[in-house]
Amino acid sequence: MRIGIVSVFLILLTIFLSLQALAKSSSSSSDFQCKAWLVQSIPTDMPHLPLVPGVLSTGDVLKWMAGNASVSLDVMAQYWQLVSHPEDSRSGDYGYSQQQMHKFGADQGFDVYKALESAADRNVGIRLLSHSGVYPDYTEEPSNLASGRPNVRNVTLLLSDWWGSGIVHAKVWISDVQDIYIGSANNDWKSLTQVKEVGIYLVGCPRVAEMVGVYFNNLWKLASLNASAHTRTVWDRQWQINRTVPCWSHFLDVNLRSPLPDYVEVPHVAGYPVLVDPYMFVMPIHTPGYNEVLVSQPHYNYLSFAPPELSFGKNQADEQAWVDTIKSVTAGQTVRINTMDWLGQSQYISQTVVYSKQATVKVLVARWAHFINSTDPYLKSLLYSNVLCSSSKYNKCSGKIEIKYYEVPGYNLTGPAVSNGTKTGNSYPGYTRVNHGKYAVSDVRAHIGTSNLIWDYFYTTAGVSFGTYNPAIVSQLQKIFDADWNSPYAVPVVPLEDGLANSSW
């Protein structure tokens, strides 16, 4: 009888402890269902670019997110032009025929817009947060979605009021606080079929969605505050200029309490220090589009944000996440960096990373119709470090830097087909035919973001990144980069010494 009572007691105790453990893990148990797909937009007329198996289309993902949303949908974008306007003489689409627009893939943008309209009509709670947009549409599309629909709210946020410059540059969708898109694609039909984009689509990942949601809420809160009452002018010792910053910025010697729901607390220094132990969450992420065998164990993942004043908890600033990804490369391996723009305001490739680890750094930068001319001498100076490295017998250098320009065919033939009643000779609509992705991947870590490698994007511009040590995502992102790098569309940058040798000096 006693044995029976003890057995029953042990059984009940086991059940109790199991229920207790279940209750404690209930908030994150669904994370075990978290799935991730890498996402691309590939411009039309690029027949020599091999496709990477298992990578989804950006247009399909955004349409699915709007179509599957049942409770809430938060969308953050720089601008909206999902619906093309070839009939509008002010538009970069002007003068192209309907047949041409169909060939360009403009229908995909229209389909995404209609999916958003359908979600709004289903009474899904929608929040749309954007910069002021671009000519000629500006905020017309999100304003139309919100018009007459109390369940749809639309705000415009000018970060220049808070930081003196900068824009809402993040491209983020959050559906039902569990599915997320983070990537380089704007809410623009061209970003779906005429611009090279890269992002990540996370499904059934509430823990990640909640953290990205805090950042969204911080920006949403900024839009309702009086910027002049919450900003100060500070002398930036690094750049030797006066800058506008929020009153809680750690660029200020005496900073005030933040009105935001949550933000990062760090000791004051001249600017923002790196976090010694940035927050990373351990979580298995299934990769149905790639090798599931690689995800048998949980791996470290992280989120990073810009500007630093909008970071929260122990999440790192976006700049640190980029730098740490580059530093993560192991001895003798390769780190790959893809960006549209890169200027010499940052120190992402340093001797400690490249040469002490005998590593190779491959950098892919876009050349397009709106190429920043000062980029070329900066990139050539980076290449010249290879020469300096071997200029003395005392230099123990064995790593190297390789840089290529990515030229989407037709990049120099973009703009309206007709201007002032005259045919222009352009072959593609304006602001197309460009490699727009922003990511870095070493041999062990992948970083997928929304920021270009320019100082402003880290300190005055809204940006979000997702990073992971998941080997499946790392491997597949490497394949995306390598497909671009090895394609005929990637052209090596001429090293500085070659340019000098061929000059008239």
From TrEMBL:
Keyword Membrane set for record: no
Key words, A-Z: Signal
Protein's UniProt keywords contain Transmembrane helix: no
Domain of life from the UniProt record: Eukaryota
Single GO MF descriptor: catalytic activity
Annotated signal sequence range: 1-23
Domain PLD phosphodiesterase: 164-191, 431-457
Protein name per UniProt: Phospholipase D-like domain
